[in-house]
């Protein structure tokens, strides 16, 4: 047995070795001891796995707690792995949607011929279908899912440190040294025919099995596992954030498309009304009851309405391509809205309840709290460099030289190794202080984003209230504008009104229709913004009209 103590510069490296080469009579006993030793080492790995959860607690600096930043029980529960994301429709099964909407599965493909980008058809979609297609085709969502899978693999990698490492090696070699060959030549030269047979080369086979285990590392292993677990939770919350952003983007694009479609109808109605006014003015001119001036004004009004219609048609094409990009559908398909513009729902919570619910549900707030935990794990990993590192090892070796009439030879090593870095110039504690400052930065960002969430909820709530009132007001205004235009046209046809009255009434009707359309679409956008500001919205919070 040999016990070696080695002191290296400012680090302590203590190595205890049992190096034995037994004789043949004790070989069976040694092999038995080797087997028992390896079994004991494997058992120690299970003990170390549980022991590693609380190791090096005395070396940790106290972690500052955020003031009024601790999540409620509901919020803490949300940091668990969210298997419910699949149930929320991350990878949905889409019904009644044509297959030609599916994009090319090759993300590196791009068109090279004009017919590959020529629009060959338009597919009407409901809002729900658009949301499902977006969730299935979204590249941002796919990237977030891949990030979750990557962090899950990183967690499995970090947990592998709880178990020992086992390795085997074997070498088969044939050697014939130049010294032996020179000796044979001298013997033949000196002794001639009486020289003994020449010594040939030797063939040997050796192999070994080595088992190592890091028994104690001052909390580094448990901190690395905790870091990986928290990083996985952060990526799952980020998946939820990406999904919420995607749903908001799709809703806004769909409402923009609906607005563009209705704007065409309003502009077309204005063109038809201007054509009717022009016909009336020309009829009165032919009857001698009107003037050329009235006809010219009607033609100018018609030209303005036609220009507005052309711009609305161009805006519709832009909105269709915009939602097609978001949905990531085929290059040759346009998307149109299959649902009319109407109020999408009524928000049933008060402003105060909405703010509290948003602060409890938002994934970004939970991410910031988890970011604080990640930084604390980094601090613990930095401090673990100041503690002792204890590892165990065992190896078993065999050697066989063929043709030497000797039996197989074997031996083993069992030992433990302790390493303690007593002084590193303060580098480890400096890294720990950096992470403490990062913890304080994460807490500051939490407070900033908390205020931002409240502002988002308040903006959405006030927009909901104001636009709901505007919808009621605009409905009355549209009815009054239509009646005003009808009376103005009757008065003009009867010769008791003027062309100016008709043109003014037409302009007021167009403005009233635009105001009502804008109020409904803006209300729907505000409702979508409210759902995004809240986070996970229960369907019971929104009542359908």
Automatic annotation (TrEMBL):
Positions with biased composition (Polar residues): 170-192
Highest taxon above the source species: Bacteria
Major location (coarse): membrane
Subcellular location(s) of the protein: Cell outer membrane
Keyword Membrane set for record: yes
Keywords on record: Cell outer membrane, Membrane, Transmembrane, Transmembrane beta strand, Transport
Region of interest (Disordered), ranges: 53-89, 170-207
Family under the similarity heading: Belongs to the outer membrane factor (OMF) (TC 1.B.17) family.
Protein name: TolC family protein
Annotated source species: Phormidium pseudopriestleyi FRX01
